[in-house]
């Protein structure tokens, strides 16, 4: 899942080396916290959050087939 998120986000941003993804796994959920350069935050969120919603949709769909845990993707500013 980590590779999927990074492969979606890195081409979108101007500073791909600044992309960081932390994973927090609990009993029934996995939370991914995505951090990008301040200048790239708008590109990852998009107008009205459309890009962020699209990223989450792809990640949740992929996770539903592989994991039996709830997946969350948080985008940190």
From TrEMBL:
Domain of life: Bacteria
Cellular compartment(s): Cytoplasm
Gene3D superfamilies, alphabetized: 3.30.300.20
Family matches, as CDD domains: KH-II_YlqC-like
The keyword Cytoplasm is annotated on this UniProt entry: yes
Keywords, ordered alphabetically: Cell shape, Cell wall biogenesis/degradation, Chaperone, Cytoplasm, RNA-binding
Cross-referenced Pfam families: KH_KhpA-B (PF13083)
Keyword Chaperone in annotation: yes
Subunit structure: Forms a complex with KhpB.
Sequence similarity: Belongs to the KhpA RNA-binding protein family.
Functional note: A probable RNA chaperone. Forms a complex with KhpB which binds to cellular RNA and controls its expression. Plays a role in peptidoglycan (PG) homeostasis and cell length regulation.
Protein name in the entry: RNA-binding protein KhpA
């Amino acid at each position: 899942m980590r590779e999927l998120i990074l492969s979606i986000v890195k081409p979108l941003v101007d500073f791909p080396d600044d992309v960081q993804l932390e994973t927090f796994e609990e009993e029934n959920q996995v939370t991914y916290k995505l951090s990008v350069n301040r200048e790239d935050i708008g590109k990852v969120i998009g107008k009205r959050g459309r890009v962020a919603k699209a990223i989450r949709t792809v990640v949740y769909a992929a996770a539903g087939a592989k994991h039996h845990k709830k997946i969350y993707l948080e985008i940190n500013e």
